[in-house]
Amino acid sequence: MKQFINAKEDMVTEAIDGTIAASGGTLTRLDGYPHIRVVVRADWDKSKVALVTGGGSGHEPAHAGFIGKGMLTAAVCGDVFASPSADAVLAGILAVTGHSGCLLIVKNYTGDRLNFGLAAERARAFGHKVSMVIVDDDIALPDLPQARGLAGTLFVHKIAGAMAENGADLDACTLTAERVIDASRSIGMSLDTCTVPESPKENRIPHGMAELGLGIHGEAGIEQVASNGAADAISKVTDRLVATMSEGPHAVLINNLGAASVLEMSILTHSLLSGEITDQIKFIVGPAALMTALDMHGFSVSVMALSKGDDTLLSQSTTAPAWPGCNPVVATPVLPLPDGLSPVRVPASAHEPTKAFLTKCCEQLIASKDDLNALDAKSGDGDTGSTLATAARALIDAMDSLPLADHTQLYRAIGLELSQTMGGSSGVLLAIFFAAAGDASSSGKPMREALQAGLDRMRQIGGANPGDRTMVDALLPALEALKSGTKPAALAARKGAQYTATLTTAKAGRATYLSAEQLEGHIDPGAEAVARLFEFLAE
Description:
Layout: H1 11-21, E1 27-29, E2 38-41, E3 50-57, E4 74-80, H2 86-96, E5 102-107, H3 110-125, E6 130-135, H4 153-165, H5 170-183, E7 184-190, E8 209-212, E9 223-226, H6 230-242, E10 250-256, H7 262-272, E11 281-288, E12 298-305, H8 310-315, E13 326-328, H9 352-367, H10 369-379, H11 384-397, H12 407-421, H13 424-442, H14 447-462, H15 472-481, H16 486-500, H17 516-519, H18 525-537
Parallel strand pairs: 3-4, 3-5, 5-6, 10-11
Antiparallel strand pairs: 1-2, 2-4, 7-8, 7-12, 8-9, 10-12, 11-13
């Protein structure tokens, strides 16, 4: 089983009960399980307009996550990607509707329209005031007579919910909801399809491709496009949005469709707020998982043209646990570094042979990126090559600002550059290595001895020794052999790197968490990088 469920027939009810149990007493449900699954505000007194929504499950936290003061009153839950019955919807209406009436907020899918519509008619027959709005914010299929309802629905929940909380009557809430619907546009993109419980996964999106304009029930998108990173994905999405957007300020909602990481969503947000529609975006909701499609590895962007007062309603407080808040978009505030941490840079000096040598060393590391990542994937987190390549590119970019003609200062400058551009413990250790080498050089030691002093300091602070399965296994014998020339140093480095493949225990780095079977036969990537550099020097 690839999902943490018990039985398909019980998963919606168990999910509802889990949500209610964790709500701190703010949520309750109607009786009638498993046929009637309605989650309700526990503190609801029917004094104001009730907001009821729902639909198929699988979009969590929608819809129950948005129940609370200032948003929804009740959510009617169907099976995964299936509309709830008219009886269930009617039960929800009758449970929460008082003299102020009830507003049904329905996404534009046939099952939802029919079941919520029939329930509304039956509730009116009981004498209740009920109105219904249909959300159709999807712009992926402009020629579709009835556009789908997507994450733009949440704008309706929040603004109409705030109005109801403020005491607006049913007509005012309905008219506002309709205006928000008219002002909202949404489109999504995904790298993979979702996994419907106990159903075979449809692998229709090839590697290196993404699907644009897909629905929230696993429906195919309007087209498959090349996947070229976050900025390109946002560009393809906003190209569609901008063609439908009006002039003036907008709010934007960036939604995780289920399986995108927090890191990915933050990068997508950065790309969105520095892209084509930046100047029109005044407020942002998210990034967050708001209306998901189970575990779909994708995102959607919803925009809403702002009318007077919408910003206040979007920002009004709510107790709904899944609402992430609405924040104004501001320029990134940057504070200066504390005193003593601003780098003191030595004046640059030119020396073409040194520049050419360092550049070629950096290019060697860049060219080895994929091989080193592949080695690291067997004993670490697969990023050694990328980390070294990033540092190498940064060093190339900074080359003209380095004191190339003063090797004593150059060691220190390289250490400073690596400490700022190279992540993880490797960056710290190499910064220590070059800083100590610079200190030794300033006291008159020649290059090999200065580098040896750097290694000694790095070992002292980092704790790595020969046989610990680190770059030390290649670097130490290489520096010792360097007194006889670069070719003996290269041979010694290679022998040291090969030696790490025989070691079945590691005493430093992430490899310490791995078993002997996982380590045996694989060269340490740091040692391999050292060996390749010395082999390059020996050419």
